[in-house]
Amino acid sequence: MDLYRNQQIRQQLGYDDGRLHTTDIFFQALEDTVLAVQNFVTAAESLGLGAVILGSINDDPEALLAALDLPKMTLPLLGVQVGVPDQAPQLKPRLPLEQVAFENDYPQDFEVASLKDYDQVVQTYYDLRDTSRRIDSFTKQITGAKLNTKRIDRDKLAQVIQRQGLALDWQPKKG
């Protein structure tokens, strides 16, 4: 995400930062970045390249900012790994449409049992992919160690975002 350039334009032309530090503008930059990354992946794949979006770049946001020597008003959001694929893996199964698309209101009568068939599809996908990889279902991933309560470096992200001068009007929970 890059709001530094916009800040520099405003400042160099004699304006203050205006709304650049608000959560609203932060989300606009976040959305633009996500769309740009997806379009980049689509373009790479149209050229016969493989691409993987890496959310893991924010595992240690402070170290990444330092390594990239990024100024305030910027934030690495996603990484992309691109290359020539040496295999043609099966596409990862996605949640069924009825679980992600709704009309007029969000159905709040969700039952975990409705994911039984999808869990089997995901488990089979991982099972067939590679014997040295995990073999689990979607619901086991959601209830696994990754989302258990514990402090990790990614938990510093809200503070890092604000130290970067972004979303300053947002008050994250202390603690």
Automatic annotation (TrEMBL):
InterPro entries: Flavin_OxRdtase_Frp, Nitroreductase, Nitroreductase-like. The keyword Protease does not apply. Residues 25-83 form the Nitroreductase domain. Keywords: Flavoprotein, FMN, Oxidoreductase. The keyword Flavoprotein applies. One of its GO terms (molecular function) is oxidoreductase activity. Belongs to the flavin oxidoreductase frp family. This is Nitroreductase.
